Amino acid sequence: MILIEHGTVITLDRERRILADGSVLVDGRDILQVGRAAEVTPPRRPDRVIDARGAVVLPGFVDTHVHLSEHLTRGLLLDDIPVDRYLPDWLIPLYSVITPEEERASALLACVEMLRTGTTTFCEAGTLFDVPAVADAVEEIGMRAILGRWTWDREGGPGRMQQTTEEALRANEEMIERVHGRAGGRIAAWPLLLGFGTCSEVLMRGARRLAERYRVGWGMMHFASHPSRKTADRIPLAELDAMGLLGPTTKLAHMVYVDDDDIALLARRGVKISHCPTAGLKHVKGLAAHSKVPEMLARGICVSLGGDSGNGSNHFDMLRMMYLVSTIYKDSRLDVGVMPPEQALEMATRRGAAALLLEREIGSLERGKRADLVLYDADSPEWRPLLNPVNNLVYAATGASVRTVLVDGRVVLDDGRLTTIDERALYARVERLAREQIERAGLPIESKWPIIR
């Protein structure tokens, strides 16, 4: 039993209570009590008491779209590479040669970054190959995750990048059988397709059937490319709906180019949307001019946030994503009332949980939910004065203030120190493996400015 006492607790509960002097009592992996410090009474002596004076306590963030395997080559792609050449010239060669050891190290690096910036749960984008190896990494570091494997049947590439429809579906079913439910249910597996027009109707229908059979969600990337670009990412939502693919267990990532009819259809079907603001800006998807995230939210659509990839947004920092989503749409709509910080925080917590069908387990600090929570050091410049904790969190806070993180009731970051892995050893391994993977892929490591060694 762990008692976290006398902190500023942003509960994200139904009433959205903020407790100026609050406590959270954790019993095993669950939250037992949340309330005013004077009212939280442990039934027995806690095994540990964490003094949260000078700290802000929140539910862990939920990142609903991450490409784990690209963290090993983060920063490799220069800005003058055309976006439509990312996949064929760079990412396919890298993915085609990545080893289980490299996928594991890349996943660990991504998880360290997420934990250190307040994220406790994520959904992989569906771009893994050795999913069990990555599940090992996630289990070791202690995060909550949904994993998916690289799945398409209309595109190809060297070796394993070429898949038939039958092979792709069989591989997904084998993945679910091996991975789903690991770590006491902390790790799940979904059929997550690449999307962007790379998947046949038979494959999409098959993925949906797999999801129904195993009672999980499914998803893919969709509507991310500007109409001026040559792309297969053109399947109308009405056509997907006619295939029976849209529903409350469907998660679509990006979804930049939608019209009012699309929004109405998404709302009727209860489809979940993962919005990736940092990647959208870096990949020049036209967010400010074209994205209708505020309009989707206004129609009651569940829109969450995704970090995307190590060469897309280049980071998985939810604090930076919340800042962006709270500011870019204010400017594009010329309305300071658009996307208030409270809405951005809901996208990073409650809506993220709902997108992953985990709203009964995570996303808020309430009795009976899993103890996934983060303590921020408010005795740091970006947090003071603590007049409006939500404003400070979304507009000012950085990952440097993340002090302690619990996942499933386990302390995985303790006063700034990771408790589950050797962080320094990981960084050394990543430096070596990154260069080995890039060399096998036959790609250069370039810099606009000279690097003197």
Number of strands: 19
Could you say how many structural domains there are in total?
2
Helix amount:
25-40%
Termini Cα gap:
52 Å
Strand % is 15-25%
Low-confidence stretches: none
Q: Write down the CATH topology of the largest domain.
A: TIM Barrel
* The first-level CATH class name of the largest domain: Alpha Beta
Described by strand count, sense and barrel closure, the largest sheet is:
9 strands, mixed
Structural class by secondary-structure content: alpha/beta
Oligomer: single chain
- Total helices: the number is 15
What does this structure look like?
It is a single chain. The termini are far apart. Helices cover 35% and strands 21% of the residues. By secondary structure, the chain is of the alpha/beta class. α1 crosses α15 (423-441), α4 (165-179) runs parallel beside α5 (201-214) and α11 packs across α12 (341-348). The protein folds into 2 domains: 2-59 and 364-415, Urease, subunit C, domain 1; 61-355, Metal-dependent hydrolases (TIM Barrel). The chain contains 15 helices and 19 strands.
